[in-house]
Amino acid sequence: MAKASAQGWDRIISTAEKDDVVVSRTQVLPQKAYRGPLPEDMHPKLREVLIDLGLEELYIHQLEAWEASAHGPVILSTGTASGKSLGFNLPVLDTLLRDPKARALYIYPTKALAQDQARALNEMGFGKALRVAIYDGDTPRSERGAIRRNSNLLLTNPDMLHVGILPRHEQWANFLGNLAAVVVDEAHVYRGVFGSHVGNVLRRLRRLAGARGTSPRFILASATIANPGDLAETLTGIPDFTVVDSDGAPSDGRDVVLWNPPIIDEDLGTRASALGEAADLFCDLIRAGTRTICFIRSRRAVELIQRMATDRLEASGDRDLARAIAPYRAGYTPQQRRDLEAKLQNGELVGVVSTNALELGIDIGHLDAAICVGYPGTVASLKQMWGRAGRRGKGLAVYIAGDDALDQFFCRHPQALLERAVESAVLDPSSDEILGEHLLCAAFERPIGPEDEEYFTPDLKQRCDALVSAGMLKVRGGRYGLARPETYPAGEVSLRSASPKSIALADAGSGEVIGTLEASRAASTIHPGAIYLHLGKSYEVDMLDMEAGTAVLRPFEGDWYTQAKRETNTWIETGLDARTVNGVELKYGDVVVTERVTGFQRKRMKDHEMIDWTPLDMQPVEFATRSIWFEVPDELLADLDEESLLGALHAAEHAQIAVLPLIAMCDRWDLGGLSTNLHPQTGAPTIFVHEAHPGGVGLTRQGFKQFTDLVQDAHDLIDGCPCKAGCPSCVQSPKCGNLNEPLHKQGARNLLARMLAS
Q1: Residue 601 burial by CB count (10 A; 0-12/13-18/19+): exposed, middle or buried?
Q2: pLDDT at site 514
Q3: Biggest distance spanned by C-alpha atoms of the chain
């Protein structure tokens, strides 16, 4: 195999530049290290271990974290591969060495990260003074009792803490009673619905520790984000975090390339497949001796790129290389996952295609290049992915654009991506829907009293009284307990989705359950007659029973796909905030969204032409959430006749939904909207952008705060697109319930321009 070098990939990228697929190529300059001596007050054993490992100095951010952690809670927010793990390990290990009874809890978002950190801790050389154990769904039941009794450093994930530890806290009395430190790694992951749930899990943990007389020190570690202090305080419920963000780690710099697949149909503006381009580049880099990781969001796309790359390498006679690449995604067995990780670490694999499962800090050995296919949702995520390569030498970072609106926006405006600040992580643990579920969990663990306001919310009594009225809690002796003590609330609450209810997908032939789908997505995704893609195979839906929670599907081999059409109504419940900005009265508040699937189109695969329309009579889905909205005054709608008015409003709504993820760390699928030329409550043309999760988690609040940025980005998205009437790269939305009709691109551009000029 050829030796990896910048020269190897330089030839590949230079050729692509000549083919006009490279829209930007820039250099990130190397950074030198900033270090200082080991702290004088460090435990002698800890100092000895570090010196044995060749660490006689620490980076300045590790030293700052050491100092700050002695005085209060800390969040360490520095770049990829900057040594954050050592930064939080040192104060925790020092505590455990000084107090044999002390316990520490490390919380990771994935099992793989916990495995990786456990391995690293065990290799440090502390002997019996450090008793590291993992406690997650893979831990054999026969070992769990010994772990609870003996471990002084426990690694777990939020899901296991939520459903397997806190509800059984009596079994953990000694551990919780001596809990001295809690580490939350990869804290930037805890945003949106997931973060709002985890925020409540951490409050429940603090409450149970407090009941046993302990107040553990919290240390968080995060990728670089805009608001690390706010994130830490909102996530834990603890005020006054010290933010350590002065990165002292060195880097060798990297080449950063933005790659736009070539146009293959000028009339339609169609580009070559981003997946095919990624497979070609992946193979070229591997042949040049460049160890490469390729990121893409969906599991199916991971398998497709892997298959294409294997076929290409075998066809070119590079069979050894074809055997040295592998896919990595969720859904593997623990042993399969660990085998892949070991092969990455020891260099047996030269390339891997992965979902964001490998975006986080697991040690996967030395990689030279990182390819990201399609915008991953946030600049912070993109930088994390790029940071996986070039840890021990100069790296190559490539972003291959898809045909999504943001992908093409960044190709037209590369600096908008390369110079854009990382986003703010947004979450709301006090969301009615989410907090209510966790109050039931908390009541199961220990009856709720007035003292628990400290952990949850100042209006705790009102929240609990509402649950009493709903028949879920009952007052006993002045405290709130479960109305039905025999229930197990944690088992009903999924941390990673807004609704725990799911639909089981059953194969019509075998009766086997082949997967599940969130109930909130069922009506538009697996309605009768829908074509549904699962693990690369197509199925046609025979039957959907929402009450029973089942859908029956049969294998499908036709040449069409389906698109559902939805009617959406948005009713304003309560205005929470308002301000005049960009020529409109912008409002933020509570709304009720009602969606009903009215039918679906069948469309041909080859040309996307409609074959026929089938009406459906589906039950409406209703949920309360948070939204921003504004009425559009007549002066902003000049030159728009009745026919084009609704299309302009609709296109402007789509553009704002497309770019809101640039402000709040979210995905466009976390958002929805409505545009109407006459809303029954406002009596005027009105645009709504709402959150797609019941209760909301603060995403639209961020849009309210940065509304001018939102309008500017939406305008630039439309204005810079060369299409005439609107396309997937500007105002068409992949999730539009009205099948992208009507849309008036020029009208939307003019409306947004007038708002900016106001």
Answers
A1: middle
A2: 84
A3: 79
Q: 279-288, 295-304, 647-656: lowest mean pLDDT where? A: 295-304
Chain center to CA of 677? 34
For every residue of 99-148, DSSP letters joined together read -TT-EEEEE-SSHHHHHHHHHHHHTS--GGG--EEE-STTS-HHHHHHHH
CA 288 to CA 282: how far, in whole Å?
10
CATH number for the domain formed by residue range(s) 35-244: 3.40.50.300
Q: Name the CATH code of domain 432-492 (choices 1.10.10, 1.10.15, 1.20.1070, 2.60.520).
A: 1.10.10
Q: Which amino acid, one-letter code, is at 265?
A: D
Q: What are the DSSP calls for 373-437, one per residue?
A: ES--S-HHHHHHHHTTS-TTS-EEEEEE--SSHHHHHHHH-HHHHHTPPPPBP---TT-HHHHHH
**Residue 295, pLDDT above cutoff 50:** yes
Cα distance from N-terminal residue to C-terminal residue, the chain: 61
668-to-245, 383, 414, 426 alpha-carbon distances in Å: 29, 19, 20, 14
Q: What is the pLDDT of residue 3?
A: 45
So where are the chain's domains? 6-27+253-418, 35-244, 432-492, 502-558, 561-757
Token pair belonging to 386: 């790029």
What CA dihedral angle connects 364, 367, 369 and 374, to 10 degrees? 0
According to the model, what pLDDT value does residue 103 have?
Answer: 99
Domain 6-27+253-418 has CATH 3.40.50.300: yes
The residues, ordered by sequence, that sit 6+ positions from 158 with a Cβ below 8 Å of its Cβ are: 107, 109, 190, 197, 198, 201, 495
pTM of the model: 0.85
Tokens representing residue 758 in the block:
């106001």
Per residue in 535-580, pLDDT (tens digit) is 557 899 999 999 999 999 999 998 888 989 999 999 999 999 999 9
Cβ atoms within 10 Å, residue 588: 19
- Hey, do 6-27+253-418 and 35-244 end up sharing a CATH topology, with the first three levels equal? yes
Do 179 and 92 form a contact (C-beta atoms < 8 A)? no
Contact call for residues 408 and 454 (beta carbons, < 8 A): no
Cross-strand partners of 333: none
- Among residues 460, 456, 424, 379, the alpha carbon closest in space to that of 698 is found at 424
Average pLDDT over residues 681-698: 94
Backbone angles phi, psi at 684, to 5 degrees: -150, 165
What pLDDT does 100 receive? Answer: 95
Q: Are 211 and 184 spatial neighbours (Cβ–Cβ below 8 Å)?
A: no
Instruction: Specify the length of the chain in residues.
Output: 758
**Both tokens of residue 164?**
């397997």
Q: With helix as H, strand as E and coil as C, how does 161-217 read? A: HHHHHHHHHHHHHHHHHCEEEEEECCHHHCCHHHHHHHHHHHHHHHHHHHHCCCCCE
Across the range 674-701, mean pLDDT stands at 95
